[in-house]
Specification:
Elements: H1 2-5, H2 9-13, E1 21-24, E2 27-32, E3 35-40, E4 45-48, H3 62-69, H4 73-81, H5 92-101, H6 107-121, E5 124-127, E6 130-133, H7 138-142, H8 146-151, H9 157-169, H10 175-180, H11 183-191, H12 198-208, H13 219-228, H14 243-257, H15 261-275
Antiparallel strand pairs: 1-2, 2-3, 3-4, 5-6
Helix pairs in contact: 4-15, 5-6, 5-9, 5-12, 11-12
This protein binds a DNA duplex (14 and 13 nucleotides) through residues 16, 99, 102-110, 112-113, 150, 153-158, 160, 194-200, 203, 216-221, 239-240, 242-245, 269, 273.
Length: 281
DNA sequence: TCATCACCTGGAGA
DNA sequence: ATCTCCAGGTGAT
């Protein structure tokens, strides 16, 4: 109970992990796969229209994790700045499509694309007086026409979304299996899919498949590494990372930050974007 | 294996 | 007004 109270909902929603969320009056309403979630900060309350539980990873031993990652001075500062920030455990299919859509885009635009997909393809559902569209099922997106997907403003990602949905719908990608297997095996499976490279795969692994050693390296993370950790890692560079550079850097990072490297990344990412006054949802 | 380049779209800044 | 650049990258050459 005490742990629950330390979760900062707004900080967590506004940390680049999720997109289909809106603040209405004093509560956050969001879509997670086939569920609608309603969150209140004080008193803390999380309601789900379905079976979603542990959205905030309440089963993690946070005390242990925070003390582990706080060995690093910069991370310690980031944790102190946003102590209520949590990693979330999202619906895997939604997370997968979300981050495929994220490539070369902005948070605002990603949110818009996903809302369009829900409106066009998701089942309408009412929960506690709120009517919204759930996230579309793999089967629906797998069989969607390119015209309709383009209509959702996906741009060049339309093809990625369709193919990625087909892979899930056919059973070639099985999220429950990916959850059970190790980081590297899951990573390799995801990267075979069109539209998924190292960064997108790491986001999916960290935010929905329980891989806490996933450490997404995007533009911001790269800036962070350059700014604070230049001396710690041989492979930090200013230029865009090639695939091999990314892998090598990731290896060094996990060695340095430890098994909960993903948590470190989230705190650092939040800190640096806030520092630069970047917008969230 | 690496370096370039194009890519849908929307918004910000020159 | 019009252009350029960038935004949580990836794929093709």
């Amino acid at each position: 109970m005490q742990k629950t109270c330390t979760i900062d909902i707004e900080t967590t929603i506004n940390s680049g992990q999720v997109f289909l969320w809106n603040k209405i009056e004093d509560q956050w309403i969001g879509v997670d796969g086939k569920d609608i979630l309603i969150l209140n900060q004080s008193p803390f309350r999380a309601r789900s229209s379905g079976s979603t539980s542990n959205f905030f990873r309440e089963d993690d031993n946070l005390e242990k994790i925070l003390s582990n990652i706080s060995r690093d001075k910069i991370v310690r500062k980031a944790v102190k700045q946003s102590p209520g920030l949590r990693l979330v455990r999202q619906d895997p299919f939604q997370c997968y499509i979300s981050f495929i859509c994220s490539s070369n885009s902005s948070i605002k635009n990603i949110k818009s694309m996903l809302e369009n997909l829900c409106k066009k393809f998701g089942t309408k559902r009412e929960f506690n007086g709120y009517k919204l569209h759930l996230f579309p099922k793999p089967e629906i997106l797998a069989n969607a026409s390119m015209k309709d997907l383009i209509g959702c403003k996906l741009g060049f990602r339309a093809k990625y979304v369709k193919e990625a949905s087909q892979v899930v719908n056919s059973g070639k990608i099985d999220f429950s299996w990916l959850k059970k297997t190790d980081y590297f095996t899951a990573l390799e499976s995801l990267k075979k899919i069109l539209g998924i490279g190292n960064k997108v795969a790491d986001c999916i692994l960290l935010f929905s498949l329980d891989k806490m050693d996933a450490f997404p390296i995007d533009r911001w993370t790269q800036r962070i590494l350059l700014k604070y950790y230049k001396k710690n890692f041989d492979d930090v560079i200013e230029k865009p990372l090639t695939e091999k550079k990314y892998e090598k850097l990731h290896e060094e990072i996990v060695k340095y930050f430890g098994p909960y490297a993903g948590y470190s990344q989230q705190f650092l990412f939040k800190m640096e974007r806030d520092l630069n006054k970047k917008n969230w949802l």
